[in-house]
Every structure is written in C-alpha cells, then in structure tokens.
Amino acid sequence: MMIAWFKYPFIRILLPFIIGVVVGFSTDNLYLSKNNVLLLLIIITFLLTSLILSSCFIKSYRYRWVFFTLFNIFFLVLSFTLVKIQDYKLKINGLENIDCVPKYYVARLEECPTIKDKSVKVNLELLGIVGLNDNFISIKPKIISYFEKDEKSFSLKYGDYIAFLVNPKEIEKPPNPEQFDYKDYMYKKGVAYQVYLKSDEWLNLDYNRTNKIYELSYRIRDFLLETMQRLGINGDEYAVASAILLGYDDSLPLDLRQQYVAAGAMHILCVSGLHVGVVFMVFSYILMFLNDRKRIQSVVKQLLLLLLVWFYALLAGLAPSILRSTIMISFVIIGNIINRKGVLLNSLAASAFILLCFKPSNLFDVGFLLSYLAVVGIVVLQKPISKMFYSKYKIVNKIWEITSVTIAAQIATTPFSIYYFHQFPVYFWLSNLFMTPISSVVIIGGMIMLLIFFLPFVNELVAFCVSKMISIMNYGIAWIESLPHSIIKGIYIDDVQFVILLIILLMILLVVDLREKKLIIPVMILVSFFLMINVKNIMNNNKQKEMVIYSLNNMTAVDFICGREHLLLADSIFFSDNSSFSYNIENYLVKKGTFQNEKTRCLNEDFDDDFVKKRKSVVTFDKKVIAMCEKSNFYRDTLNYRIPVDYMLIYGRNRKSLKQLLKVYDFDYLIIDGSVPYYLLPELIAEADDLGIKYHSIKDNGAFILK
Q: Which residue ranges in the chain fall short of pLDDT 50?
C-alpha cells in the first residue's frame, strides 16, 4: 500500500527540512562569511523560483520527479541556511572580535532570574561595551550569568539593565569523556559565553525594557504562584502544583523530581499536551451551549477555545513545551473553523515545522523530541494496542484503554530515552494508570482554584482538595519508585544502534498504520543487525583495559577498568557528593559496560584486588606503576635507589617540588590532577618544562585516559 502523501503535506516538508538541520549542525566547523550567507540566500531564491515555474508549466505526470526533487532540495537548503545564519550571527557577535580594552559591559535580563542552590541564574543579552575612552561599541551576544546570592541579586527582574566589570568567558567543552556537552547544548540555543558576578562586580542601572507579552505572562504567573501560597499550598505540594499548573519547576526538589523520573511520570510535571488537552476539553464542555447548527455559533466557540488555550499558554510562561502543544491544537481548531478536518499527524508535523523554522536547534531538544514522538505513538499505536485485549467488564476495558495510551507513548519514546538517559522506567504503565486520571483532576481543580481565587472560603476549600490530591500523587509516585527494580539504569546503545532503532520504529508505525506487511522482513533484518552490533560492543568491552583520571573541581577520582569490571579510587569528598558521579562519570561507565559492576576504594586505603593493587602511594595496574603524591605523603630526601614508576600523579595542595620527588621516584610522565589549586599549577608546569618532563594538566586538557 502506497502512502497517500496528499494527506500529509507537512510531513513531506518536514523530512527534507530535518535533514537540512542535521547537516547544518553537523558542519559547525564550516565557517560562513557574509558573502557565503548571501550566496545561500540567492540559491534559495533560485530554487523557489524554479519550484514555482515547474509547478506551473510541468503538467505531465511523467516528469513529476522534477518538481519533487526541487521541492526536497529547496526545504533542505532552507533549513541548512537557517542554521548557518544563526551560526553567522553568533560568529559576528563574538567577544573575540572586540579590538578594544573593555571598561565595563552593559546588558539586559532576557528572562526572569532563577534562584539556584549557590547562585542566581539568568540569561543576559549583551547590548554593548564601554571602552577605556568611554566609546560605546554595540554588540549583542547572549550570555548566561550567575550572580552571587544576596538581596541585590534577588531584586533583579526581567528586562532590567545592568553594568558589570568581569570579562565573560567562552563556555568550555566537557572535560570528561561522555560527559554532557553543556557548551554544545548552549551553543545550539545561541549562547556561547558565561560569567559569574559577585555582588561588588555589577550595578543595576535602574532602567527596564521588556517584551510586553512576556512581561504580562511573567506578572500573571508570579501573581498566581503567590495566590497558591496564600491559599495554603506549601512544600512539595506547592512545588508540584506550580510545575503541573504553570510550568514553573524552579522550586521542585531534586529528590522529588528523581522519583517522578524513576516512576516514568515526569511528563505529568511538564506543562505539555496533556495539560492543553485537559484545558481544551474542559472549556469545550463549558461552551456546550454554543453547540448549534448555526455556523456563526460554531465559529464563535472555536475562536473562544483558540483564545483560551493561548491564554493558558501565556499563564504557563510561553515555555517551549506548552507552545508545541498549543500550536498543534491551534491547527485542529482552525481546521474546525474552516470546515477542514485535518489529519492529526499532519497538524503535528505543521506545528513542528513552524517551531523549527523559528528555532532549528529545537530538533536537538530532548523534550521537543519526546513530546512529539509520544503523540505520534499514541495516534498510530494506541488503537491497535487497545484492540489486543477485550473484556466483558467495562471497568477492565477502561483500565486497558488508559494503559494502551501509556504503552503506545512509551514504545515511541523508548529509543530516545535509552540513547539520551540510558535508563528505562519499568513501572511506567502502573504510574500512568493511576497518575493520569489523578493529574487530570488536579489540573481541572487547579484551574478552578485559580479562577475563583477572589471568592473567600470557597477558594480555600478547593485549594485544600487540590493540595490533598497532589499529596496522594506524591505518595503514589514515591511508592512506585520504591518498588524493586523500578528503573533499569546503565543501558547503552551507540549512534548506529540508535539510528537502527529509529528506522525500526518508523517501519513498525508504517506496518501498523498502512498494514504494510512486507516491511516485517526488513524489520527482522534490522533487529539482527542491532543484536550483532550489541554482541560486538560486549566483546570489545570484555577486552578493554583503561586507567582514567577524571577532571573534577577540588576532588580526585581515578578509575581502573578491566573488562566488564572497574575499581573507582577517590577521596571522601567525592564519595559524599552523588551529583559529581552522575554528572561527570556515570555516562562513561555506561558506555564501557561497567556501570553495574562497581568497586570503590578511598585514596588513603591500601588494597589488593584482582586487577589493581595499592600500597601506600603506589598503584600497580596491568604492568603499569602509578605513584600518587599528596602533601600528606611521607618523603625522604635520599634513597639508595629511586622507585621506578611509569606515571606520577600529583593531587591536592602538594607543595613539594618535582626535584624533591625525583629523589624518591624515577618517572618520565607527570599528571597534574584537577584538585591542584590554580595558584600552584603554573609553578608545577614551569618546573616540568625546565626538567624536560612530559606532563598532562587535567585542569587545562581534561581527563587523562590511558588505554
């Protein structure tokens, strides 16, 4: 069966457009000058003209390929150009292009500040630089800033103008293997620099300029957040209510967030399609009196619904997740107004296309991908899954219907959740079975609570009920998260396996939607390839031997990997900080297949393991000898012989000179750990250069990996 493409025009547009975005970001080393950008714009104009002419003059079905070839090339080049224009803007606005000494910088807050554990975080739009001669240079890069927490930074608000003295620095690449690439993540968002500002390093200029729509959105949201607290919703209940109703998750505790992730219900806390759908259905029911055969009443109802869903998006701060759902449902409403019942998948593709046109980097936003794939899975797979089981009892059928929605969404999103997060929530079906109806009640009750905030006693009663429902939700999530094996961690697939999984998923969707049974054989072949790659990766992991010294601030961690096992040697500070392990190290161990087989030892501990041994300050691993030197180590100035070692690792606040170390140890390669303070680093490097010793500075060059 052939695909009826006329039903899915935006899917046809989206496919080449996505390829162009991927190619654009994959060639980020390709620098485009102003002339190159103009050339691309000329090519787009030529392609568009050719496309219009071919549609007007080529009528023969035989030559339809000419139009479709031009069609695909046009949208591919269009998306490639949009990516490169963004890259060009970043390049010409780079701070390295400034040829004067800055006196101070002038910037504007692009959003509401977010209070973090150790700082106040906000994105800045740099407006210009004032030089030493008081000349003003206009330049507009975006900067992510971190302010010291105090009353001064707490008083900042969206649109404020500030001046600061500190030179922003380019965001650095991740220093550890497989660590989350924050530099690339922010670059795709159009941000290349960051700055930390202490209280005495910046000044509020007492001037404010805002986008009136966003200002209104933030003011309404802040008012509603204060209203919830005034009505007695506090603690975890307030954190969940603000996230689930208004998309404000800054107050959500990390442990509670992790519980929702482990239970496979994190989407409930993100204002998205579920929330917009509930709002749409509630107001559609309220406006039932407009359900009449008269055309004018039907149009009025649809226009009111369109206005209400966009007002809700405004309340939620116009976050990307809410915009996706609002744009998609807007297409459905507009289709109803003009009496064109559109295909939901086409409406979905249309909303994705619009968002990608404005911001191509959305394609690499995991939330963007997961939300769209979840809807695609529900649209295509939910009905076939629900038909697999039938009971004579209505309640059983209803439960299975809810479960089938969850299963459909999970099937569609699993490749991405495994590839990006290396985990799978086992009880996702159980959490969504109970949480989806409860969360719908919370959303409806929360909307009523916020609408009647001015009615005394009644508003407090509704708020009390909403708070108790959220307590039940939190308790249920905590119980599911406590179940044995609630989340499977450490699942790894490489890039090729990820692509194969996506192709398999696409073919499964086509088999289900179009009954194209011929695709079953290619699916089985791809599954075989996937398993063969998995076996190859396991065999490679069984043979691996590596020593990795990770790059950590004020901490030391050395990993010895042998086959499918590893031993992590670290200081007590590292072991007391779980976030350091999960952020810096976990992904690499997942890739190496050693995540589940962990052994740990303290730096000051002697041990004798199967593949690594430590005595005092000397470690032996796979015929290599590593000396580990810290200020508390015992030194003797003279020895009858020097201890031969392959590598010397200096960590902590060691003030011993290399000449002193060479009296005790015979080594040719020096490793300076990231825990060595900055003020000691230049001395060590200068001395190593004088003595002709090869060295690796982890602070400067990232983690040290010895294969």
A: 1, 632-634
